[in-house]
Amino acid sequence: MNTATRKEEIVAVASSLFKEKGYNAVSMRDIAQEMGIKAASLYNHISGKQEILSTLILYLARKFTSGMQAVIDSGGTPLDKIKEVIEMHIDITVNHSEALAALNNDWMHLENEDLSNFVRMREDYEDNFRKIIKQGIEEGDLKPRHPEVILFSILSTLRTLYLWYQKRGKLDVNVLKKDMVAVLLEGIV
Question: Whereabouts does the entry annotate DNA binding, in residue ranges (predicted)?
Answer without folding.
Answer: 27-46
